[in-house]
Design brief:
Bound molecules: zinc ion
Mean pLDDT: 94
CATH topology of the largest domain: Helix Hairpins
Structural class: mainly alpha
């Protein structure tokens, strides 16, 4: 029985390490997605600024079109002014000219403001492009690290799984089946190492007879409460001074 107990302990250790690797591997997609989120976020900030610049340019083109139309109107009114035959007609044209010139002045103010906006937006696009490039290269490097780590974890898992299989193969079939049954039912832990007379996991005190049996290690003892297999491993004694 003794070597089987040692094997059970080894299989449990390997299963625990494999379980921990599986948890690390399971979060790899989320880690990669979070990194992609950083890159997408920087790209989105750049896109939004580029879009703002495009809209400002398009507004400016529209204002310039309006300006051209208004200037053409003024020169048309000027021509008509020369040909005016009545005072009323003359005054009416002068009024229209004044109103159009006022409109022109408003358009010119808006164009100037748009030009300033566009200068600022061009600077923003330059800054955001730099930011995006920096974030992309930084986070692509992080992604490569995560992928390398994933490869390492997979390789380690494969090697542990191999060790686990060959260790488990030396166990008698009924013991191996029992181990698997308890492990599945008990959250992945079938073997508990304890250093006193309590179950190392659920802390339930064992009967003196059971404690004696696990201490000697010649018989398989299970916890009366959680039914895990108990193994005894006393803590190292403090060296006497
Ligand atoms: Zn227990």
């Amino acid at each position: 029985m003794v070597p089987e107990l040692a094997t059970l302990r080894e299989v449990q250790d390997l299963d625990t390490r494999i379980g921990s690797l599986d948890r690390d591997l399971a979060i790899v997609p989320d880690r990669l997605a979070a990194i992609d989120g950083e890159i997408t976020g920087a790209r989105g900030r750049l896109d939004a600024t580029e879009q703002e610049l495009k809209e400002a340019a398009s507004t400016r083109r529209r204002e310039e079109g309006d300006l051209e139309t208004a200037e053409a109107a003024v020169s048309r009114y000027d021509d008509q002014l020369l040909a005016a035959r009545t005072n009323d007609e003359y005054r009416g044209l002068r009024k229209q000219i004044a109103a159009t010139r006022e409109r022109i002045s408003g358009i010119e103010d808006r164009i100037l403001a748009l030009m300033e906006d566009m200068d600022r937006l061009r600077d923003d696009v330059t800054a955001r492009t730099r930011e995006f490039e920096a974030i992309r290269s930084e986070f692509e490097a992080k992604k490569a690290e995560v992928r390398e780590e994933e490869q390492r974890l997979r390789a380690e898992r494969a090697s542990l799984a191999e060790k686990r299989e060959s260790a488990a193969a030396t166990l008698p079939a009924d013991l191996s089946a029992r181990y698997e049954r308890i492990r599945k039912a008990r959250g992945g832990i079938a073997v508990v190492v304890t250093s006193d007379n309590r179950c190392g996991l659920c802390s339930v005190r064992m009967r003196p007879q059971s404690f004696e049996e696990i201490r000697i290690g010649r018989k398989l003892v299970t916890c009366e409460s959680c039914s895990r297999i108990l193994l005894f491993d006393p803590p190292p004694e403090h060296p006497s001074e």
